[in-house]
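Researcher: Hi, I'm a grad student and pretty new to this. My advisor asked me to get structures for two proteins we've been looking at. I'm not sure of the right format, so I'll just paste the first sequence and hope you can take it from there.
Model: That works fine. Here's the first sequence with its structure tokens right after it:
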Amino acid sequence: GINAPFAGYRSPWEPPLLVQMRYVFNAASMIREGYAKWKDSLFQISRYDGDILIVPPRYLDDLHNKSQEELSAIYGLIRNFGGSYSGITLLGENDVGIRALQTKITPNLAKLCDDIRDEFQYCLDTDFPACRDWTSVSVHPLFLKAVERIIHRIFVGLPLCRNPQWVQATSKHAHYATMI
């Protein structure tokens, strides 16, 4: 990995999960904090789905000289999933997914916030265990399910996004499509 400091930690003993959850609500302030401390250096921010490396402007010329394949998150994903052995190389063959996100989802994020919040609350109410005392919970599967529910809500809406047959069919499809 990259040897760069992390922004957003309140103490050296703070669990990464707390920082990652704080990122969801305070990403901008975490980036500002990192920029204030390490303006001309690399720094990282911890997210639940992976760390983000913040690169200062002085490295832009170096980045301009890199190929799209070297800088592309899609090509990185393809490499991480086994390249041609995984069957996902077609993601790198066109940019239809990226264009859909850029032209349809991103411009409408403000309109989607209420649906996202509503679906996450539904997920908390239905999928997370009700607890009166301290209870150990495996959060990874719960967060995956929450993300899955929110994506269904964005792409197909109510009531289909909560239909058990739909959820099972799409979940199984994603599972089997990524198996090698």
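Researcher: Oh nice, that was easy. Here's the second one.
Model: And its structure:
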Amino acid sequence: MVKIAYLMHIDWNWAKQRPHFIAEELSAVYDVDLIYIKQVANSSRYKKQEVCKKLNIRKLYKLPYSGKLKIIKKVECLLNKKIRSIDFSVYDLIWVTSPIIFNFIDFKHINNNSNIIYDCMDDYLEFTEHKKDLSKHKQLEEQLVCKSKMIITSSSTLKERLQSRYVEYIRDEEIYVINNAVSQKWLDKKDEYLQIVNRYSETSKYVIGYVGTISDWFDFDLLMYILSENKRVEFKLIGPSTVKKVLHPRITYIGAVSHDSLVTHVRDVDAFIMPFVVNKLIEAVDPVKIYEYIMFDKPIFCIRYPEAEKFYEYVSLYRDKHEVLGEINKMISGSHEVKESYEYLRDNTWIKRFNEIKKVINLAIDE
């Protein structure tokens, strides 16, 4: 059986996203050692996620302020000494989800002949915290790209950027776009979920839900504008927050929840929204939440940008606050026409994506 080291930069108990789903799919076919960065702080932001029994779990510990204080960094290195010294030559494949992992594992421990796949889910250099030391993070990303046999990106925009940024390292036959998807487990229960979800009544508040991380790309100004213009609207925000919360009597913060319990938290939601400020980071995002929103057959309001255009049949794309307010008012005053989504979702499950991933793995190993 193919043995894989899966190096994951996200805490397993963070909001479930692409790296979690792919790790689970890989473990169904391959022998996978999952090594993820465990954040030793802010426990309220995390919610215990179910761990697939076939995954062999190891943790790299990230201590608060280890990037600023040398003494804490030394303690962190001691805690991670055992994993830092792993012999990666025993693996047939090394799967890496972000260059940040190499702040914990030295590149020198990975043989130049290793089969590495870099699964790029975001534009690493566009995160605010990475811009503070751009040369360091550019070097980490460049080293990873250079060492990788194959690169997978979650969006076409990411592929184009990486090819432009590292034109001397990346050949066309070494980089593939594999989009995000929806859980097959969720899709199998679609009818069951729809039966427990409440429907909007004209006598009640109109609750708009958001599911995901709340960070510096979240458009709070948009929410405040909508709330000021329509007194019937309420927002329900589900997910961990890395920024200061904007308080309003009609904004409810649920915080982090497990992926399996998410359905119970959206049962009273009348519509969904993806209220992002479109910057270079967001321009490259293939929004996994939209795939999940579509499953509930409710109105979806999403900021318009190229990677979101493929969802146009199922979502209301908006350019500015006036346009989205108009769409919301229209949905409140009229009926929402549900477009059949099962066939679309069936073609966009993580199982379908995994079939594409297996082809890339075979290319990396057989090369």
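Researcher: Is there anything I should tell my advisor about the second?
Model: You could mention this: The longest strand covers residues 31-39.
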